[in-house]
């Protein structure tokens, strides 16, 4: 699918392996790491990878074990994107919602 579609960004969750074990695979497809959030046990992992030939800039605004928020920029336009892996634990998921609400407030300032 990666070879056929050639996405600029790839968001992976629940990878069940360490990125170091898959690193060469992604490098061979010409993708670089934007951000990796690995959790012990590799059940709540979030990987964000970008193609080597993207025509925009991407920067990490915020990162924690349930969400990675990015700013994508091209020319004078900006777009914010969050890769989310919400936990099944309600009390921890509440922390995610609080984090997203705070991000919404802070992004309005950027």
Low-confidence parts: none
Query: Into which percentage range does the β-strand content fall?
Result: 35-45%
Major beta-sheet overview: 3 strands, antiparallel
Categorize the overall geometry.
Answer: flat
Calculate the terminal CA-CA distance, rounded to whole Å. 35 Å
* CA-atom Rg in angstroms: 15 Å
- The neighbouring-strand order within the major sheet is 1-3-2
Task: Please tally the β strands and state the result.
Answer: 6
> What number of structural domains do the residues give?
1
From the helix content, strand content and strand pairing, which structural class follows?
A: alpha+beta
Count of DSSP H/I helices: 3
Proportion of residues in helical segments: 25-40%
Written as H for each helix and E for each strand, in order along the chain, the element string is HEHEEEEEH
What number is the mean pLDDT?
87
Structural description of this entry:
With 110 residues, the protein is an alpha+beta fold. It has one domain. The chain is 29% helix and 38% strand. It contains 3 helices and 6 strands, in the order αβαβββββα. Strands 1-3-2 form a 3-stranded antiparallel sheet, covered by helices on one side. The chain has a 3-stranded antiparallel sheet with strand order 4-5-6, with helices on one face. The longest helix is centred in the C-terminal third of the chain and has 18 residues. The model has no long low-confidence stretch (mean pLDDT 87).
